[in-house]
Amino acid sequence: MKKHKYHPETEAVRGGNEPQKKNGPLSTPIYQTSTFEVTDSDQQVRATSTDMFYTRYGNPTHTVAEKAIAELEGADAALLFASGMGAITTSLLALLKSGDHVVAQHDIYGGATKFLSQWLPKLGIETTFVDTTEYDQHARAIRPNTKLLYLESPTNPILRVVDLKKITALARQHNLISFIDSTFATPINQRPADFGVDLIMHSGTKYFAGHSDLICGIVAGRHDLIENIHSTRTTLGGTMDPHAAWLLLRGIKTLAVRVQRQNDNALRVAEFLARQSKVRRVHYPFAEGHPQRALAMEQMHGGGGVLSFEVEGTGEDAKRFSEALHLFTLAPSLGGVDSLVSLPVLTSHAMISAEQRAKMGVTEELARLSVGIENAGDLIADLEQALTVVTATREHAQVG
Question: What's the chain's average pLDDT?
């Protein structure tokens, strides 16, 4: 963990730029170039390890964004990738080799589940999946060849919360790399490095960007691990475009204020849904009745902008509900200023088996909401009318 000079709100706006007086542009320039000129061959050799050689290796616009993210996370360094899955796959390929073993939670993003369970075995790397909050299972699953613990908290889409103190103690005990997908939390709500997590991954597409207009992956953490991952990123080529990195920087400046508004809105929406007879179960870390609420409030500053719930009825009722909404746009992804609704069985977890989804608790009746920054009262009214549409449709079908 690296010491923070400023509060998160200040780091979000000023991170990556030293606050000294200077004559220059207030906004970070976009180095929209694939390559950089040098004066002679000696300089060419020196430039190879810098961000002014070739953009697949690095780029000054990337560097500012990466420094800002590292400051926000309290990490040594950070790297940008072309997508969240690019960040996951490149990092795991950098850190693992044939014969290694991974212990991973059941409750993780479907794309990560697919990579761990279907792709890594082709390379001789095996994964054991364990119950997310049963830490004895994590411990029992560790083998002599275990290299990495793969975590996610809060989880997608059931919003389970991992005890970061327990899991990092386990990783240290067995000399394992701890790798967490912290996309739902953001560094505004949770800083895993403060608990000793080695690597923190984000789909920067979501909250960091904040406006549903770019694709990005992020990994932050220890210098030695980041250097290894950087070398692999250079080889595999999953580098972010400089213009997209500039858009990311613009999004980061408002990260703290957006997340605070989304925290407030999502909690109000969760509390409303919990009172509805047409709702079977609500999943939100800061809501009353959440099984890890006390833990979430201890290690998080806010519950985040995502919640999920099961519609009372069938999968068809969940579809009708999602299609009846007006302010919640029916679309995958999350974290933007616009509120979205999706059905995980059709989107984030469609690429994995029904058996794997069942172990996560991802049912056909489950709807996931990404709550934006709109007026909370308007969002609640929209949810209320959509639930009424589902009930009316069901009653009409029964009469027919």
Answer: 94
